[in-house]
């Protein structure tokens, strides 16, 4: 890049390019060579790579990249609902809309700007949205890539409507893993969860970690602010930190469900795991003028299969 760390300019590390459908996407880079891509279609992070250029997010080889459908992979934004209810499309409409880059957004504080690049995106209610969800909102999304390669997404939803509204939300994060049967999640043990495979019946997690040997589709409730996903084969751990997102969705479609999804390869369930920071059980209600913030940070650390050294507090 030719920048010394002292004069690192986040604007220089921010490049607008086109994807193969001609849709603008933003490429974020940090001084060490990590990168992230964000599409204006859906405000969706479509790629996150470490300093070695290794992809950290899963995208299906069969993903449909053509709007208006969301792409299967990366980090789709689920708003104003997660799942399938009311008259809205599955997971809401935000992931299927064109967002705009907001140029006049506030800069990073000086102590936070060292080696960091970011982009601010904005989604406002359109006439079309108001027909199916009659509330005016402004949704601001900041995606930032830090000097250490951490990826942070900050969502701010403001009610500019004359009456209160409620919504549910999720960062639908598709993590790329080496082998799902060798992966474990720590930080959700002893929690209650709603099981979407059993009509959302409520259970309590019994294991000392979550491991995978069949389809899983659960919403863990009132979860801690940090969760670890240990990939034994790659000896690496994803640490997911979150604020304003009390729930965690854990999803892997396994073999049978994979075969029923047109935009997902039959065997791809082995290489992916969704662990989503979310607000589902108790939707957010905003009065006119109020704003909600939900923050997610993804970090990758080397790990042995024992995570005692991980700081999950």
TrEMBL record:
Q: What is its EC number?
A: 5.1.3.15
Q: Name one GO biological process term.
A: carbohydrate metabolic process
Superkingdom of the organism of origin: Eukaryota
Q: Which GO terms describe its cellular component?
A: cytoplasm
GO MF annotations, alphabetized: carbohydrate binding; glucose-6-phosphate 1-epimerase activity
Recite the UniProt keywords alphabetically: Isomerase
Its recorded reaction(s) are:
alpha-D-glucose 6-phosphate = beta-D-glucose 6-phosphate
Q: Name one Pfam family in it.
A: Aldose_epim
Stored PANTHER family: APOSPORY-ASSOCIATED PROTEIN C-RELATED, GLUCOSE-6-PHOSPHATE 1-EPIMERASE
- Recorded family membership: Belongs to the glucose-6-phosphate 1-epimerase family.
What this protein is called in its record is: glucose-6-phosphate 1-epimerase
